[in-house]
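Just curious: can you write a single protein's sequence together with how it folds?
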Amino acid sequence: MIGRSKAVLALLAGAAATAQAQMLERELGDLELKLGSTPSRSMAQGLVQPERIGTFHGGFDLTHPDGWYLGNWSPSAGLLGNSQLELNSYLGYQRASDDTLGYEFGLIRYSFPRLEDLDRHELYAGIGLEDSRLGAAWSLAPGRSDSTLLLDLDLLHPLNLDMSLTYANHALDRPVQLSDGGSVQRFNDWSLNLSRPWLGLQVGVSYSGSDLRGSGCSAYSGQNAQCDDSLTLRLEHPLF
């Protein structure tokens, strides 16, 4: 385990040395190598997004022309403060999307060398049809499992509207006892995002919620920032 940690730290140091470029790309025979401090890919049509938690992060990605890929991404090197070393190792296959259909599937292992009780695995898959996407992921972690679906529709004609819907189910191994005597062992949550350009701005509306109410929200540990229903309006304008 110590040797593995040293190898990752060396990898992160190399990524930091090329921070201005963010990504170093090389050809290794038939393989394409990407090394850098910026994630080189997302999975399941964007449902699974690599994080950047600490100041020092980086990883590598190897891709074969047939579509197979593997890599490792470390969102945190665990060098500062109370941060923990985290290693995300993945293996998958992606059929590049042409004008009609593309698909992907794979497996990620999230490991914490200093806190092995937090290790978890995630299976993912995705389908892309023209400009619309469907992604799915199933995660198994100590004490719980989580299933998530992503539907992303590009309603360019005639509405010029982007719509994405995420729906998740969360199952706990042990029920959480509530102050009113009830308990929660399974719950669902969701988020809906709509956006479109308007007068040089990108206008977005987001709605999120869950099926937990009242004291049940004390057991919430899902994908949204909060348990209760939330509606947000966003206006974005590029500076350049």
Remarks:
- The longest helix spans residues 2-17.
